[in-house]
Amino acid sequence: QQQQHQQQNKSKRPQRKFMVPVKRIKSPMLMAQWQRSHAYQTLAVFILQLNEDIKGGKTQGFTRTVSPVVRKIKEHLALAKQWITDIPPVKQPMRFGNKSFRTWHARVAEASEAFHKSLLSEELIEQGAATELGLYWTESFGSLQRIDYGTGHELCFVTWMCCLEQIGVLTADDHVSMILDVFNDYLLLMRELQTVYWLEPAGSKGVWGLDDYQFLPFLWGSAQASGTDATTADIANKERVAKLAGEYLFFDAVAFVLKVKTGLFAEHSPMLSDLSRLRTWRKANSGLIKMYKGEVLHKFPVAQHIYFGSILRFESPDQSSSTASTSASSSSSVPTSAMGAPLSSSSTKKKPASAAFNSLQASLLNRRGQSSIDPKLPSVLRPLGHTANSKKSDDSKKKDNDDGE
Known about the structure:
mainly alpha, two-stranded antiparallel ribbon, two-stranded parallel sheet, 20 helices, globular
């Protein structure tokens, strides 16, 4: 009788309509709309919250529970890494862009549906979630046509993780594991792909960038190192980098840079050298967040490749609330707000983008047991047109300016 009752309730719930994600940012004129969109606000809060949750713990010693879903993801990433051995690079005249990458990429795409179905509930499978998630997954490993990889593909992987949280497959309790287990394994896989198939750096910033391929291991890694015995001065010390690489994402990323680049550190990585001269990790992290906003989220060459679907929508929260509330919000098995929590009656009312952004952050932080919002969070990844709700004192403003050095 209980099973029959559950089946009846399931049949009464409106079916969520998943879709194949599409690109919507066709010109720089649409960047303002992107910065007000449901997808932007959801991703911004997701990136910032992971940044908060990773603070102050070593990679190997960070206490965390690895969920069955995270284990399955790790196993599949390990399998994808094994496929590199199975598909060796072909001999070709050009150094970059080995064509064997396309064979490897095709195998990843072929296995995508079965992999995602292993993560999803029967209901989500029936609704077509594997198709929507699958595009983000396959696009996060680099361009099949150009055989290149960059921060836009890295963002696509983070979008994939965010989508899994939005539909309840992963939860906020998985945040530390998302970085130290899932994202870290993804980084190791990408480094293997970069060195075996010589993926072309997509939009490389050259010597003044952090890295030719990645950004987030430095951003989240600087948060992880805060409050530990590792110092920013260690960034420029090869011996300390080698010692700390296994304990912190930031130093692991620096170690990879030192492995693939030669010459003086200050010359091939001037930005990392500059970070080593900052007084605290908090200053480094604050500056990297602002840089990520400016060089990734707000750059049209990157943003034009972002995909939008039913989980992360191009419409602003107030525009999409009326349609979302009749589909995704109606199903009790699927989180409906941008923070993965059911929408209350008050949250379905239209509100300005800035107010929606703040309410989303408040929703997540309160759900995580925090009584107040760090006033820095809304400002560093603030959508276009957002203004603070409360006035800061002169001392507070000066403090914020110092943190951005």
